Amino acid sequence: MGRQVTQKFLAEGYQVVATLAPHESLAVAERLSSQVVDVTDEAACAQLVADTVEQHGQVAVAVMLVGGFAMGGVIETDGSLVAKMMKLNFESAYFMARPLFAQMAQQPTGGHLIFVGAKPALSPGVGKNMLAYSLSKSLIFRLAEHLNEAGKACQVRASVIVPSTIDTPANRVAMPEANFADWVSGEDIADLMAFVCSPMGGSLRETVLKMYGNA
Question: Is 143 buried (19+), middle (13-18) or exposed (0-12) by CB count in 10 A?
Fold first, then answer.
């Protein structure tokens, strides 16, 4: 999904700074730069924001896409699994959002923070067999609420996009008997993210958008 979001925002005319894991790469493109960053490292996230501002002057939009998934209900979910999911799904988002919010709050036009939520975090019936994942993702909604409250005076907004199953090659391999047409495409998610940042989406506040498709 990261590649699809990157391509969408490039198409919309943004200068895009993408974060990569050590094994990842991106094709060279105009208005695109990338950097290997451990987004679970608070200091590394702060440095990335500082470097981006030094190079480009401001950050208009930030999309937090990093995350991980794990199965397991209450019986199977020990503290180490909870800690792992919190690190991947919540800390990665918080460590990026905090310096980004501080920067955006100083900008005359504010800024927009976009997070990816999860359907299991909103529905215990859906999330009962993926407890650690659901708990970690539930904090994304609370974080967005706090950021929206703090951002009212400085035009900083936070939105949460909540997809159901995303149509990715990995998910198709993991669930080969599923009806892929019921899933949500990465392209559609990217389109929605671009919309909430556009002038047409400018009046949206405290936005939680559920993209469940038919899943």
Answer: buried
Both tokens assigned to 122: 């909103």
pLDDT tens for 161-199 read 999 888 888 888 888 888 998 999 999 999 999 999 998
What distance separates the 2 farthest-apart alpha carbons in the chain? 50
Q: Which amino acid is at 14?
A: Y
Contacts of 123 (CB under 8 A, 6+ apart): none
Ranges assigned E (strand) in 65-201: 111-116, 156-163, 166-167, 184-185
Beta-carbon contacts of residue 215 (< 8 Å; ≥ 6 apart): 164, 165, 182, 183, 184
What b/e sequence results for 179-208 when a residue is b if at least 16 CB atoms lie within 10 Å of its CB, and e otherwise? Answer: eeeebbbbebbbebbbebbeeebeeeeebb
What the block records as the tokens of 83 is 């800690």
The answer to whether residue 82 sits within a structural domain is yes
Q: Residue 132's domain spans which residues? A: 59-211
Count of structural domains within the chain: 1
pTM of the model: 0.93
The enclosing domain of 137 has a CATH number of: 3.40.50.720
**40 assigned to some structural domain:** no
Could you tell me if residue 70 is inside a domain? Answer: yes
